[in-house]
Design a protein that fits this description.
Layout (H helix, E strand, L loop, with lengths): L1 H21 L1 H19 L1 H27 L6 H19 L1 H30 L5 H16 L1 H7 L4 H77 L5 H31 L8 E4 H19 L2 E5 L7 E4 L1 H18 L4 E11 L3 E10 L6 H5 L12 H5 L5 H11 L3 E6 L5 E10 L15 H13 L16 H10 L3 E5 L3 H11 L5 E5 L2 H10 L4 E5 L7 H11 L8 E5 L4 H9 L4 E4 L4 H23 L1
Parallel strand pairs: 2-4, 8-9, 8-10, 10-11, 11-12
Antiparallel strand pairs: 1-3, 4-5, 5-7, 6-7
Helix pairs in contact: 1-3, 2-3, 3-4, 4-5, 4-6, 5-6, 5-8, 6-8, 7-8, 8-9, 8-17, 9-14, 10-11, 11-14, 15-21, 18-19
Length: 623
């Protein structure tokens, strides 16, 4: 606490200098006004000389204050003494005019002198509320001249009782000024201390939130590993046997529920820390709506509900926005409607209008025939975790974060999410957005649940198809071509899986080995670089977060090393899917990324995407 007091004391000098510098014009105006008042009594020559002297003192203050204002560091003793000297001189010159008023103006001049001194004393207090030393330097000459009042009254032959009354009044006023000044200084210091403590508390809270966010991100990253293994293992357990298939579906549903809860928690944490971002990319709006409806069709049928969409044909096709986050909001609202609607129907109503200069105003409404909500429920609807208060979580499940996250995401996109509801009349959630027109058609690739055989067949052309070769006038015969072609066709995909978690490596093996892939694993980046010197791989799956040498740095070294795998496609395996994280992976030389937890469709889709790109690039280079 002692250091805080020292800091306040040091900064109070700079604050006093700033206050006096800001009041310089005020002082000059007051001096001009006083000069006009006293000129008839003292004459133009004396008034002119006094004004010149006072302006000279003001100029001295400017010279002394200028270096302090430019560099408000800890002041030396010499600078502090210079401040006190110019303040004392300024006050002395201004207050000395009271002597002239008494001498020439008599009783009337004395009244003017007393009024002037009381005014400038109050001004001195206001202009130095944080620095007691500066306040005393400004008040001392004024108090001295004011205390001379009884002597001037006596010199004018006033009665003794009147002289005593004047002395008492002067002493009482001086005491009042001293007490008021002291209290103002104390109050100012208290405010500064409170502000400093509040700022310290704010910084501490921000550090705590940052630590909390980092902790949750680390925990979330680690939790995705077992969730990915659960989903991968469940996919392998789906057999024609009904009981085994039901058990696998149960495990898959539990894993997906865990993933959804984890995603909500991490999104809520990122939003609270101000780290959530949205991106703007071209996407097919109609296709996104169709996929959303298809996703919830089965759920609605299972509950005996009608699911309708209105206005989809009038929607624009190509727009620019964050399709993943828009889909997330719509899914949250559809989930909420499905959860609370027991009978009737759920309608997704969409509308669009041109928005100048080059965009669309979009309106999405999710209308249900559920029980509706009371006024109190509406007031608490977007409060995170609030549904647990009414036992909603225990009855329906969920974290209570979906609606809060949805509103925050729409706010980040510059839109609005509102709700209207009444008890017994259902609910209507409305999302309004303005999105730019898309530059080109971007298809959203829908992941299809294929069998292993179908997937293997779909991968085969990308691997074994020979690249077209430009015709030559006189091709040189190569006797070994058929043998080489047969060898390429028989060669399995060679994959390198790099991850510091054994369970992740096993999950990838479980998914890809049935396709006939030859899989090599590495537990860290250094081992991966060694493996890349020993063999040539078709694709490398690289975990991003690894101790010592992370995936991005490993990829950079692989690309710069010029070894046999310098051009091998690297797929980033990461739980960090924010745009800046994806951009960092691309900058490191990674060709694609797949998010954790790993699922068979996502992993196989990433593999197929990279192999297709590689085949297309090889064909282009050969042509």
């Amino acid at each position: 606490m002692k250091s805080t007091a020292v800091d306040i004391a040091e900064s109070s000098w700079t604050a006093a200098v700033r206050q006096r510098s800001a009041a310089a014009v005020q002082r000059l105006v007051a001096a001009a006004a006083v000069a006009l008042v006293v000129t008839p009594m003292v004459g133009v020559r004396f008034t002119f000389g006094w004004v010149v002297l006072y302006m000279a003192v003001q100029a001295m203050e400017v010279v002394v204050y200028r270096p302090i204002l430019k560099s408000p560091d800890e002041l030396s003793t010499g600078r502090k003494l210079a401040i006190l000297a110019v303040v004392f001189a300024n006050s002395t010159v201004f207050s000395s005019l009271s002597l002239v008023l008494w001498w020439i103006g008599g009783a009337i001049g004395g009244v003017c002198a007393v009024l002037m001194l009381t005014a400038v004393m109050l001004t001195a207090i206001v202009n130095a509320t944080r620095c007691q030393a500066v306040m005393i330097a400004g008040l001392t000459p004024q108090v001295g001249f004011l205390l001379a009042t009884p002597f001037f009254v006596y010199a004018l032959h006033a009665p003794g009782p009147l002289v005593m009354s004047a002395a008492a009044a002067v002493v009482l006023f001086t005491f009042y000024v001293a007490i008021t000044g002291q209290r103002m200084v104390e109050a100012s210091v208290t405010v500064i201390r409170a502000h400093a403590l509040a700022e310290e508390s704010r910084l501490k809270a921000e550090r705590s939130l940052a630590d909390h966010t980092t902790f949750l991100a680390a925990i979330g990253h680690d939790l995705r590993t077992p969730i990915g293994a659960i989903l991968a293992g469940a996919a392998e357990l789906r057999t024609p046997d009904a009981q085994s298939r039901n058990s696998a579906n149960l495990i898959t549903d539990a894993g997906l529920m865990m993933k959804a809860l984890l995603d909500d928690l991490l999104d809520h944490t990122r939003i609270g820390a101000g780290r959530m971002t949205v991106e703007a990319k071209d996407f097919d709006l109609r296709q996104m709506l169709a996929q959303t409806l298809m996703l919830w069709r089965g759920v609605a049928d299972a509950k005996g509900l009608k699911l309708r969409i209105e206005g989809a044909s009038a929607m624009p096709r190509h727009v620019k926005g964050d399709v993943m986050r828009i889909r997330q909001v719509l899914n949250n609202l559809m989930s909420n409607a499905m959860k609370f609607t027991e009978q009737g129907q759920i309608t997704l109503r969409v509308q669009a209008w041109p928005e100048e200069p080059s965009g669309y105003a979009l309106l999405f409404e999710i209308v249900d025939t559920g029980p509706g909500m009371t006024t109190d429920q509406l007031a608490r609807l977007f409060t995170p975790f609030d549904q647990t208060a009414d036992g909603v979580s225990a009855r329906y499940g969920g974290s209570g974060l979906g609606l809060a996250i949805s509103r925050n995401l729409i706010d980040l996109m510059g839109g609005r999410l509102t709700v209207r509801s009444a008890t017994g009349q259902g609910s209507r959630f409305t999302v309004s957005l303005i999105l730019p027109r898309g530059d080109e058609a971007v298809q959203i690739v829908e992941v299809v649940d294929q069998s292993r055989l179908d997937i293997a067949r779909s991968l085969t052309p990308a691997v074994v198809a020979p690249a077209p070769v430009a015709p030559e006038p006189e091709p040189e015969p190569v006797a070994s071509t058929p043998a080489v072609a047969d060898e390429v066709e028989d060669q399995p995909l060679r994959l390198l899986v790099v991850d510091d978690h054994d369970i992740n490596r096993r999950a990838v093996q479980l998914i890809l080995q049935p396709l006939g892939c030859e899989i090599t694993t590495a537990a860290d980046g250094m081992i991966a670089l060694e493996r890349c010197q020993e063999a040539v791989f078709d694709v490398i799956f690289m975990d991003v977060r690894m101790p010592e040498l992370d995936g991005r740095e490993t990829t950079r070294r692989l690309r710069a090393g010029g070894g046999p795998n310098a051009a091998t496609p690297v797929v980033a395996v990461t739980a960090d899917t924010a745009p800046e994280d994806v951009a960092a992976c691309q900058a490191a030389g990674m060709a694609y990324f797949v998010s954790k937890p790993l699922t068979p469709p996502a992993l196989i889709g990433a593999l197929q995407h990279v192999l297709n790109d590689t085949a297309a690039q090889a064909a282009t280079e050969a042509a």
